[in-house]
Structure formats: structure tokens, C-alpha cells
Design brief:
Structural class: alpha/beta
Distance between the termini: 44 Å
Shape: flat
Helix content: 25-40%
Strand content: 15-25%
């Protein structure tokens, strides 16, 4: 028994075993029968009202159960073996039901051409019936009166199907679904046992000539002895579901009232409708006007189609030359009056031959990317069987390598790609064939060597050029896609690309030429007018950097370590008409610091229930909550600068506060955060969507192009991202610039639990301790995990009773 117990516990897994433990604790297991080889136990699931019979064979290390659980061993097997082992260890027998048993019977009665339905309970000792007029779920104890009513999973399925129709005249749709399920149950008809057959019966289809066409009508199946109006029929074998009611409305009307097919529709009828009905009904064919069946040679047929940039090859079967029928997607389709006799063995043989020689599956499209299609077109041209779409193979010629062209006008970067019109090995002229930039980038990203041309054909990618400049070019184009023009924050990279290609950058871009390689330590510091503070050297350099970014109208992320004075550096660089958004708790500090260090600036604190905003103030202070609540008012103005303190508050780009921040209008934006990336790189994207929209492309693009590769350890991508955001981020650590500043100070504060909280905590502690001690003494292997869970519950109770 011990070996069987361990086997079931190991194979059940932790989750199933835990459910079995819970079921066993509910005393849901009772003994059913016992022999030298087997022990049968009954497991009653009160939540479902279902009893499951579990048979254990300790000597063979095996078990069986009659439930429909998809896993094996299931929770019923686990509960049975747990309860049995516990009973054996305690030296007590398992409880067994002393009540007489009863059987659930599904009863039908004829009534005016219909079948009326009810559920009965048959007492096995008295053989008397009682009507079951309550849901099975209400029999929580599994007891019906003084009898033990054992229900099965199929009974629950039937009850769910019946819904509220547990008694009376069932609808036809319900009868048709119910019959196959009842084939496993006890059923009576007018009080007599009655078998249920799953086979649907209804019609025999008669076909006869009518003019040049045929007439089709449905007659009742001769096996049917009796039909009921609500979806059932009776034969010598018992009750059946009625087949014709499973047809669509059009077919049902056609077969009941008859239909004449004219000559023009006979081929379609013979190839589509007739095979379908032959599979479902008995056919009596007396017609001579059906299409003529002829002998025709069977052959493979290839069809060539263009699939995006590549080639699709579709293989099918054809009868005759010229074709008189095709087999497409497994459907036999005659092409005229003559219908060939179908050769199923030949079709299978050709299918195998197609796979062996060409690696193609019958009736399945095979896609070849451009590189493969170009290599294989010669092989396909040697095909000697029937074929369609030969002209598509001409689309896979190779032209000269593409050459890039770059231009800048009206704030946009334009790239063009052109190839010589002459195909490789030909003496064509020198006119150019174009390729779309999106197609070039897609081919390069997916590792393709060829790109489709707009005029047809393919050209080879300039791999050396793309290897050197492709990443930078792609970053610039993705940034430009966001708003239809190049963001100012991306202009340093644009100048870098032009310099690398020896192109003369326009004068309006030269001011951004050296920003990528700028050393912020070299920026000159000019003390702001009205500043009443003595700044440390590193703070002066931070102010100089902020002022420099403000002049270029670029967003700046000041990410200095905690305690280095991000607030005072920002205050020193604030222009008039500035908006500062900060957490509510630090708004008074911002007001105090501005009045202390920049008394020349007027301040409006927009906060509280009596808040009023003064747009004439030099600096307006408000909270993230009010930014979200009054976003339309804030977004309606163009501010001189917008500052987000503790900017990690907008790290979720889908939050309302992040969207409200992105809608603010200002030529100069500042984000203050000592932790710009807290959990993942998406935090950084959200910050830059506020600071410099478009620089890192769209969110989905950022995830695919930056975040996922970096998470997968691609250092080159991480380095390129660092290089991209470098001009817009200033971060100094305390040990680098101010080692004399004290380290972080931690002070623990203790809070006593209230009497109510203390009672809750002590109750959880006592309950968990008793339960764990019992399991440890019993040698339960799961006690470690349960101890950790108990600690979690106690910690939660300390935080808050809820």
C-alpha cells in the first residue's frame, strides 16, 4: 500500500495532490467493496454532486476510476488513496454507505405525437419509481430520501444540457443533442426499457429523371416505425435522433418538398451535393440524366502564383488532357458534362510521388522566399506535366545591386534605392529600377540577400553599406515615422550619418553636429540672474547642461543620484512660464526652494480644494493627480518649460497620467529621476515619449528593436541604445562628484498593532502553527512550502487586516 501511495503522489503532482488532500479532509471517501486484490472506494464531490468510483490494486501498483477527469491520477484517486492510508494507519475501517441504493432513470412517454420527458429515481430494493424534480446539484450529500443516489459525470452533462427543461415536452433541438448522451444511461419508453441508438435517421433520398434534369425528394427512412414531432424517431433498435432536422433550412425544405435540378446544375449536384448526401442518407438513384462518367488519365498539375515578394507553388490533381475534372483542396470538381471515374489509389500514388520528387504536399500552398524561388525557377521550368501561371516565374530575375540615395528637405529625411535595369548576364539598357525603402529594411532585418523591385524582379542588397549604416538609418526612419517629420532629438544622429557618408549637412543642422560627442564637463557655466545659491562645481555643470539643452529645445533627463541636488539645478535653469509637476508630498518643498533660491520668480501652487491657477506666475506647481484630472487645461497652453519631478511616475505608458504628460506643449522638457529604469526598458521608452517624442520610435517598435534583444543579451544593441540617448541623459553618482556627502540614513520605526489587528494576527499564527506541526510530525514533504505560505499570510495580516 505504501508503494502505491507514493506512486500516486509522485505522478499526481503538487496541485492535484493538494486538491485530493482537501477532498479527503471533507470525509468524502467511503468504502464500497474489498477483496484480496482490489479495494473499491466511493469519492463524493459535494461541489458538483458527483460520485466517482475508484478501484485501487495495491499488489499490482495500479488503479482505475470512472470519472471523466482529463488527468490521471486525478484528485479523486488522490483523495481515495490518502483516505485509505489514513484509515489503515489509524486502524479504523472507512465509512460505508448503509443506505439502499437507487438508480437514475430517464423516462419518455408518448403524448399526441410527441415525446414527454421526466427523470425518475428507481429504488433497487422495492423497484418503485419516484419523480426527481430537483436539480442534481441540490443533492449535496448524494442522498435522495432514504436512498443513496449515485450520479455520474454523464448525468451532470445531461442536466447542463437540459437547463430548465428537466421535465415535460422537450424541444426538438434539445432531443437531438440529448439522444447520443442517453445511450450510456437507463432509459424507458412508456414504462418499458428502451435502447437509445446514436445513429440519426430521417430520410431516404429518391432521384429520378425529369425532363433533361433530375428531381430529388426525401422520403421517410423505411426502418422508421414511428416519428415524433420533437426530434426523435423509433425503430426496432429503439429511439434515434431525427436526422433531417440537422439540415440547414434550404436543404430541409428541398428534401421535404422536392426539387428539380436543370441540366446546367447536374455537374455541380453530382460532384458536391450528391457525395455529401451519400455519406448521410440512403440514396435511391433512378435517374439516367446524371452526368456521364468517363475514363480519363490522372496527372499532377502545378500552379504558380505570386505570394507577396515570393512564389507560391500549388499542386493539385487533374483528370484528362484537356482537363475534364480537378481535385482541389480534396474536393472532386468536374469541369463539364463528362465526369471521370475517380481513381483514389492513383491519387494516393501521385501524392507520394509528388512528395518524393519535389517535396510538395498535395493541395497545400508551398511558399518560396525570393532567394529560393530564384534558385528553383529553373527546376520548375523543366516540369513536363500540366501547369498554370508560367508567367509568374518571370518575376524572379536578378538585377544589379541597389544603390542608396539620401536627401534632406522640409524637415524630412528621404531615402531612395535604385538598381540598373539590366538583369544579370543580359545586355539591357541603363535605366533604373526602384525598390521601396520599407522593403529594403525588411529584407535586411530578416537576413534576406534580395529585395523586390517596384517594377518586378529582385536586386541584391548593398550588404556592406547596410552593415555600416543600416542601424542608424533605420533608427532615423522609425523616429521620423511617429510625427511625419524628423524629431529634433534625432538630428544629431542625422548629422552623424551625413558626415559618415561625406555629405554636406544643411546649415540648419550644423548646431546639432557635435551634440553626440559633447562632453558636458566642457560646457561654460553662466550663473543665472536672480539665483541666490552657491552651487557646487558638479551642480554648476548640471545647470550649464540644462541651459544648453533648453537653447536647443531638446528634452533632458537629469538622473543624478539621490542627494545631489536635482531640484536646485532645475530651479536655476527654469525659464519664465514654467510648469512643474511633482508628487503631492514634495510640492511644499518645491515652493520653498524656489522662493529661497530664485526669489525673482513668482510661484503659483495649484493644489487643494480651493485651488486657483495664475497663468501670469513665472512657475506653476501642481501634482500628478491634478495633471491627470485637468489635463485639457494644462495641454491647451504652450509652456516655457515642463518639469516632471520623480518622473518614474509616468513609467507606465498606458496610464492616464503618462498620456497627459505626453500631451503637454513646451519647447523644453525636463524629467528628474534617480531611477529612470526601475523594472524594465519600457520605463525608459515612456520617459522619452515625454522628453523627445519619436526618438525611440513607437512602443511596439521599441519592444521589438531595442527591449527584447537587450533582454536576450545582445550587447551591440544595448551599446547603440546608450549611444542614442547619451546626449539627453545626465547622471552622476554621489561617490563620483560628492564623496564628502553622508551615505543614506536608515531609521526603523515601530508601530504597535491595534487590539483587533493583534487578535487576527494571533489567530492566524495559532492556526498555522498547529497545522504545520501536525504535517511535520506526519512527515509531509510539502511542509516547507506550507510554512512559507503561512509566513506570507502573517506578514499580510501585519500590513493590513484586509
Amino acid at each position: 500500500m505504501e508503494e502505491l501511495f507514493e506512486t500516486i503522489r509522485e505522478e499526481a503532482g503538487r496541485e492535484i495532490w493538494s486538491k485530493g488532500v482537501e477532498l479527503a479532509r471533507q470525509d468524502a471517501v467511503s468504502g464500497a467493496a474489498e477483496s484480496e486484490q482490489e479495494i473499491s472506494l466511493r469519492v463524493f464531490d459535494r461541489s458538483k454532486g458527483i460520485s466517482t468510483l475508484v478501484t485501487l490494486s495495491p499488489s499490482e501498483g495500479d488503479w482505475s476510476r470512472d470519472c471523466s477527469c482529463k488527468v490521471d491520477p486525478c484528485l479523486h484517486v488522490a483523495a481515495a488513496v490518502i483516505a485509505l492510508k489514513r484509515a489503515q494507519e489509524q486502524g479504523i475501517p472507512l465509512p460505508s454507505s448503509k443506505l439502499p441504493t437507487a438508480t437514475l432513470v430517464y423516462a419518455f412517454r408518448r403524448q399526441q405525437g410527441f415525446l414527454d420527458f421526466e427523470r425518475l429515481v428507481l429504488a433497487e430494493d422495492t423497484q418503485k419509481y419516484e419523480i426527481l424534480n430537483v436539480p442534481l446539484m441540490s443533492l449535496v450529500s448524494g442522498q435522495w430520501g432514504s436512498y443513496a443516489l449515485q450520479t455520474r459525470q454523464i448525468d451532470q452533462i445531461i442536466e447542463h444540457l437540459l437547463g430548465g427543461e428537466r421535465r415535460g415536452r422537450l424541444k426538438a433541438a434539445t432531443i437531438i443533442k440529448l439522444m447520443p448522451l442517453l445511450s450510456e444511461c437507463v432509459v424507458t419508453l412508456d414504462g418499458q426499457p428502451c435502447a437509445i441508438d446514436k445513429e440519426a435517421l430521417g430520410l431516404t433520398i429518391q432521384i429520378r429523371d425529369e425532363g433533361l434534369g433530375i428531381h430529388v425528394i426525401g422520403k421517410k427512412d423505411p426502418r422508421i416505425l414511428e416519428s415524433f414531432h420533437n426530434g426523435a424517431v423509433r425503430t426496432e433498435r429503439g429511439l434515434h435522433p431525427q436526422a433531417d432536422l440537422q439540415l440547414g433550412p434550404l436543404d430541409l425544405d428541398l428534401l421535404r418538398n422536392g426539387h428539380t435540378y436543370p441540366l446546367r446544375d447536374l455537374e455541380r449536384f453530382a460532384s458536391e451535393k450528391l457525395p455529401e448526401w451519400e455519406r448521410r442518407f440512403k440514396i435511391e438513384n433512378r435517374a439516367k440524366n446524371l452526368p456521364e462518367f468517363v475514363s480519363a488519365d490522372l496527372d499532377l498539375e502545378l500552379e504558380f502564383l505570386r505570394g507577396g515578394d515570393g512564389l507560391i507553388v500549388r499542386a493539385g490533381l487533374v483528370y484528362g488532357d484537356p482537363p475534364v475534372a480537378r481535385v482541389t483542396e480534396g474536393v472532386f470538381r468536374p469541369l463539364g458534362r463528362k465526369v471521370p471515374v475517380r481513381d483514389h489509389d492513383g491519387e494516393k500514388r501521385l501524392k507520394d510521388e509528388l512528395w518524393r520528387q519535389w517535396g510538395l504536399e498535395l493541395h497545400q500552398d508551398r511558399y518560396y522566399p525570393p532567394s529560393e524561388a530564384i534558385k528553383l525557377q529553373g527546376n520548375f521550368r523543366r516540369w513536363r506535366g500540366p501547369a498554370r501561371g508560367w508567367e509568374q516565374l518571370d518575376q524572379f530575375r536578378i538585377y544589379e545591386d541597389l544603390l542608396p540615395g539620401i536627401s534632406w528637405h522640409d524637415g524630412r529625411l528621404d531615402l531612395s534605392w535604385a538598381s540598373s535595369d539590366g538583369a544579370e548576364g543580359s545586355a539591357a539598357g541603363s535605366s533604373k529600377r526602384q525598390a521601396a525603402t520599407a522593403a529594403v529594411i525588411k529584407a535586411w532585418e530578416t537576413g534576406q540577400s534580395l529585395v523586390p523591385l517596384l517594377e518586378g524582379g529582385f536586386a541584391r542588397l548593398p550588404t556592406d553599406w547596410l552593415q555600416r549604416y543600416g542601424s542608424l538609418m533605420r533608427d532615423l526612419l522609425r523616429a521620423q515615422e511617429e510625427k511625419g517629420e524628423m524629431p529634433r532629438a534625432a538630428l544629431p544622429q542625422l548629422v552623424e550619418l551625413m558626415d559618415a557618408l561625406n555629405l554636406e549637412a544643411p546649415p540648419d543642422l550644423r548646431s546639432f553636429a557635435r551634440l553626440q560627442a559633447l562632453d558636458w564637463n566642457s560646457l561654460p557655466y553662466s550663473e543665472p540672474e536672480g539665483l541666490k545659491a552657491v552651487l557646487r562645481p558638479y551642480q554648476q555643470k548640471g545647470v550649464a547642461w540644462l541651459v544648453h539643452m533648453r537653447k536647443l529645445e531638446l528634452g533632458a533627463l537629469l538622473a543624478d543620484d539621490m542627494g545631489l541636488g536635482k531640484t536646485v539645478q532645475t530651479i536655476a535653469a527654469l525659464p519664465p512660464q514654467s510648469l512643474v509637476i511633482a508628487p503631492t508630498s514634495v510640492l511644499p518643498n518645491w515652493q520653498k526652494e524656489i522662493q529661497r533660491f530664485r526669489p525673482d520668480l513668482t510661484v503659483c501652487l495649484y493644489h487643494g480644494s480651493q485651488r486657483e491657477i495664475d497663468f501670469k506666475a513665472d512657475v506653476i506647481l501642481s501634482s500628478y493627480g491634478l495633471l491627470r484630472q485637468d489635463q485639457e487645461m494644462f495641454a491647451a497652453r504652450t509652456w516655457g518649460a515642463v518639469v516632471l519631478d520623480e518622473a518614474q511616475m509616468i513609467k507606465n505608458p498606458e496610464s492616464k497620467v503618462a498620456l497627459a504628460a505626453q500631451a503637454l506643449q513646451a519647447p523644453f522638457r525636463v524629467a528628474l529621476s534617480g531611477t529612470p529604469v526601475e523594472n524594465r526598458l519600457d520605463d525608459l521608452w515612456s520617459l522619452f515619449a515625454f522628453l523627445n517624442p519619436g526618438l525611440l520610435g513607437g512602443r511596439k517598435d521599441f519592444r521589438e528593436r531595442w527591449s527584447r534583444p537587450i533582454e536576450e543579451g545582445e550587447e551591440a544593441v544595448a551599446q547603440r541604445l546608450r549611444q542614442t540617448i547619451k546626449p539627453f541623459v545626465l547622471r552622476r553618482l554621489k561617490q563620483e562628484v560628492a564623496p564628502e556627502l553622508p551615505p543614506r540614513i536608515e531609521k526603523p520605526l515601530y508601530c504597535e498593532l491595534s487590539p483587533e489587528e493583534r487578535r487576527l494576527y494571533e489567530a492566524i499564527f495559532a492556526s498555522s502553527r498547529q497545522d504545520l506541526v501536525e504535517k511535520i510530525e506526519a512527515g509531509a514533504s510539502s511542509s516547507v512550502f506550507e510554512a512559507l505560505e503561512a509566513l506570507l499570510r502573517m506578514r499580510q495580516a501585519c500590513c493590513h487586516p484586509a
